[in-house]
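Input structure tokens:
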């Protein structure tokens, strides 16, 4: 089963592994790096799915920050334990150590997760897409600003002038007009004003108030 968005059916890598590529782990003893969000499109956890794979043996779980099931708080060290669902030992990767030792990996033929960890996210996405597997990068803010090729082609990010901070990036108007190109900074090429920045212009030039009147309003906390 896969998630359906409109008329498009999307499978996670876990969906593909469990339902069509389980033979990759056949006759192997393997470990799994996972947390609470390691689920398939039906929200079934990777630990229980892989523990049930036929002719393969999941023997060890590795838990990062927050633990295998997300019970620990941010930045809280977690201890090694035993998973109550699968009965498998859980090795902490967010305690005294942040990476597995050789002894922790002893007896494993494979560690699920190492393939993607060793590859560039965008190269992995394109390789999966070429193989017919719907895939996308879980983007950071840096990805959206600097790396996403589709967003770059749309010229979605522009710069405007801020009174106090100078030039700064902002999402551009999405509509593209050939005769009168839109610009989020407008004709005056500036970002949103600071509080009270345009008081003199609005109260003075537009409303005709004197400088003394504007000063009095400011002193009385009216503006």
């Amino acid at each position: 089963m896969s998630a359906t968005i409109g008329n498009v059916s999307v499978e996670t890598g876990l969906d593909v592994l469990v339902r069509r590529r389980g033979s990759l782990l056949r006759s192997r003893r393997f470990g799994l790096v996972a947390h609470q969000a390691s689920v398939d499109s039906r929200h079934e956890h990777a630990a229980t799915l892989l523990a049930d794979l036929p002719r393969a043996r999941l023997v060890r779980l590795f838990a990062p920050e927050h633990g295998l099931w997300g019970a620990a708080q941010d930045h809280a060290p977690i201890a090694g334990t035993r998973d109550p669902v699968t009965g498998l030992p859980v090795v902490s990767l967010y305690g005294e150590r942040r990476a597995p030792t050789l002894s922790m990996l002893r007896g494993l033929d494979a560690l699920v997760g190492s393939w993607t960890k060793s590859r560039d996210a965008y190269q992995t996405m394109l390789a999966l897409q070429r193989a017919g597997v719907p895939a996308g990068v879980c983007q950071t803010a840096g990805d959206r600003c600097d790396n996403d090729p589709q967003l770059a082609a749309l010229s979605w990010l522009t710069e405007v002038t801020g009174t106090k901070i100078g030039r700064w990036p902002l999402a551009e108007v999405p509509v593209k007009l050939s005769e009168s190109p839109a610009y989020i900074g407008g004709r005056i090429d500036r970002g949103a004003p600071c509080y009270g920045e345009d008081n003199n212009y609005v109260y003075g030039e537009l409303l005709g108030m004197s400088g003394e009147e504007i000063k009095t309003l400011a002193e009385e906390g009216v503006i």
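The chain has a mean pLDDT of 84. The two ends are 60 Å apart (CA to CA).
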